[in-house]
Design a protein that fits this description.
Elements lengths: L4 E3 L8 E4 L20 E2 L4 E22 L6 E7 L9 E2 L40 E20 L9 E8 L13 E6 L2 E4 L5 E4 L3 E12 L1 H14 L5 E4 L7 H6 L1 E6 L6 E4 L2 E10 L1
Antiparallel strand pairs: 1-13, 2-4, 3-8, 4-7, 4-8, 5-6, 5-7, 9-12, 10-11, 12-16, 13-14, 14-16, 15-16
């Protein structure tokens, strides 16, 4: 299985973005903002997003973060070496970007067909854990134009909405994270009692935090991680996937976060030319 992957330099933020349709002021520029409430909303169940750069960018992943797509969604990503090229440098073909649980891997009949790790819903559900992330991984390639075609025919609202676009190359350490990685759902809701003694809840927001330990970093990986920590810190979000391209889609979906580094702990040297660093990623 592939080791964890981190995209800390989002090339999509340097691109000029256009879309095949938009509803009112919900435009492609919102795909470059780190705000759950800022979305690109299509006027139908299909959308085509084009990203263009002045110089070539190395791209190995395209992710649509916080969408209202279901497991029935389809996505196709094409990359062109030059903006005017007719033949793409790569073409993922039509893929399922947020697939359902593999049939037979979980007790049949206990969950509905087509379910996955996401709680489907539009932007009004995202504060309480709604929304899905769509991702496509492929070999790194240098391109100046990306075309991302998305469709989801079973959306009850009749339109697609996407909050964030991530596109770029990833870093993957030679030695994977140690066993014991933890995924912690966080909820700011508060439970209290009224003067009559009734227990009530003041509903808050939810998010996920992923904690790992990189105990066996090589010297090149240590240097790369230090660069990521210095460039991003707790300020700039990154895309983190602990189980990329795993056959169990639920495992990958649960452990893929777009968020910020929640800790800046020491990078230690437990023994000669091997380095160790704890890492926590908190979803936006």
């Amino acid at each position: 299985m592939p080791n964890l992957r981190i995209i800390h330099d989002n090339a999509a933020d340097r691109a000029v973005l256009t879309a095949s349709s938009q509803a009112g002021t919900l435009c492609p520029a919102n795909l470059q903002r780190d705000s759950k409430g800022a979305v690109l909303r299509a006027t139908s169940l299909t959308q085509s997003i084009t990203a263009t750069w002045p110089t070539q960018e190395c791209i190995a992943c395209v992710a649509l973060i916080l969408t209202n797509m279901t497991s029935g969604a389809r996505m196709r990503v094409r990359g062109y070496s030059q903006p005017g090229d007719a033949v793409p440098a790569f073409d993922t073909g039509t893929i399922m970007p947020c697939p359902e649980a593999p049939l037979g891997s979980y007790p049949f009949g206990e969950m509905p067909l087509g379910w996955n790790a996401y709680k489907w819903g539009g932007v009004n559900t995202w504060a309480r854990g709604g929304g899905s992330d769509a991702v496509a991984w492929f070999p790194p390639v240098f391109v100046r134009r990306l075309v991302i075609d998305v469709s989801c025919p079973d959306l009850p609202g009749g339109y697609l909405e996407i909050s964030r676009l991530v596109a770029g190359n990833y870093w993957s350490p030679e030695c994977n994270a140690s066993y014991g990685a933890s995924l912690q759902p966080q909820d700011t809701s508060e439970v209290y009692r009224t003067s009559a003694g009734t227990a009530k809840t003041a509903i808050g927001t939810t998010s996920d935090k992923l904690s790992i330990n990189l105990e066996h970093l090589t010297p090149p990986d240590r240097a790369r991680l230090m660069r990521i920590l210095r460039e991003c810190g707790p300020v700039r979000p990154l895309l983190f996937s602990l189980f990329p391209e795993n056959p169990d889609s639920l495992l990958e979906q649960d452990h893929m976060l777009y968020g910020r580094v929640a800790n800046l702990d020491a990078v230690s040297t437990p023994y000669y030319e091997t380095y160790s660093a704890p890492l926590q990623i908190e979803g936006i």
